[in-house]
Specification:
The complex is a heterodimer of chains A (about 80) and B (about 250).
Chain A lengths: L12 H4 L5 E7 L7 E7 L3 H11 L7 E6 L10
Antiparallel strand pairs in A: 1-2, 1-3
Chain B lengths: L7 H23 L7 H21 L8 H4 L25 H20 L7 H31 L1 H21 L6 H8 L7 H18 L6 E4 L4 E4 L8 E2 L4 E2 L1
The chains are: A alpha+beta (about 80), B mainly alpha (about 250).
Chain lengths: ~80, ~250
């Protein structure tokens, strides 16, 4: 893999395509169940994050799936 | 056996759709473990399954036509030797940018055709068109997301994307056929689809040009302000067009 840098973007080419945002994926199989965390995906683009969540966590016929950007989570207790 | 239908136009378009879907699926499959990120690889695998699934629902329709009589071996994808997919798909993708270009340009073109068949007078096509169009919404989001990512990366990455788009551009626009294309015109006259080749091309450009234009990716299309639609800005290379295979010679 080339490590070329460009004037437009000073990062090496490989790093330019590295995803940096983490999205937590929550889903439920029945409406009477609460949403629970089933995993996470990395994507800088929210639309791509939605595509990735759907394709990776496709083991069940979910009735609802949501994604939450990690940076929006507020820690209340941390040990 | 049920009575077979004599419709060379439908037979030709199903052959082209099925072969293109099959070839796209095979090319995508190679990238199911070679995409730039794990998430993208899983998405590529899912889209591979979708494309091969679309081909699998289209090939059996060929048996319904009298045109299948002459060469029954051409109906089954296992024995079929004709390859009516775009010439762009003859060879392996040169890189991830070819995957994204196929996803963004060609798959969207096929979807534009299927959108025009959602109220088709031919029920087997109508049913399949609605299902495929629904599944393709995810593919379109994936394509647009990756075009944005690669274009915004700048430098050599953006240049590689532009090169892939350029190589596929003309052949994809040609796939709809010249406006007097007998196959597409017959489908239009029989209300199997609701648009002429020029109208399909215009709808297609309306779908893809906002993304390309917004990213300032230079392609030969311009906005006709009076008609309020996008149009090819250069004549398409019809001398390279093979009307039987619906691909370049």
């Amino acid at each position: 893999m080339s490590m070329t840098t460009t004037e437009d973007n000073p990062k090496p080419r490989r790093q330019q395509l590295n995803e940096s945002r983490v999205w937590h994926v929550y889903a439920r199989r029945k409406y009477e169940e609460p949403l629970h965390e089933i995993g996470n995906v990395m994507a800088d683009d929210v639309e791509l994050a939605k595509v990735y969540a759907r394709s990776i966590y496709d083991e069940f016929s979910w009735v609802e799936m949501v994604i939450i950007p990690r940076e929006s989570i507020v820690t209340v207790i941390a040990s | 056996m049920a009575t077979r239908i004599d419709n060379s136009a439908l037979f030709a378009i199903f052959s082209s759709l099925a072969d293109n879907k099959q070839a796209i699926g095979r090319r995508y499959a190679f990238w199911s473990n070679g995409a730039p990120a794990l998430e993208a690889a899983v998405a590529a695998a899912a889209m591979t399954q979708d494309e091969l699934g679309h081909a699998r629902t289209l090939y059996p329709l060929l048996e319904n036509f009298t045109q299948a009589h002459a060469q029954p071996e051409q109906v089954d994808p296992q024995t079929r030797t004709l390859h009516y997919h775009l010439a762009y798909l003859d060879d392996d993708f040169r890189g991830w940018c070819d995957f994204v270009a196929t996803n963004f340009l060609l798959d969207t073109a096929l979807t534009t055709f299927l959108e025009a068949a959602q109220n088709s007078t031919y029920e087997p096509l109508r049913q399949r068109a609605r299902k495929i169009v629904q599944e393709e919404r995810i593919h379109e989001i994936h394509a647009e997301g990756w075009v944005r990512r690669l274009a915004k990366a700048g430098g050599a990455v953006r240049a590689a994307l532009a090169a892939s788009l350029e190589r596929l551009w003309d052949e994809t626009l040609c796939w709809f056929g010249p406006n007097d294309d007998p196959t597409m015109q017959r489908l239009y006259q029989e209300e199997i689809i609701d648009a002429t080749p020029d109208e399909l091309r215009s709808r297609y450009l309306d779908k893809i040009m906002p993304t390309l234009s917004g990213l300032e990716l230079d392609v030969p299309a311009s906005f006709n302000a009076s008609a309020k639609q996008w149009e090819p800005s250069e004549p398409l290379p019809w001398q390279r067009w093979d009307s039987i295979g619906r691909r370049w010679k």
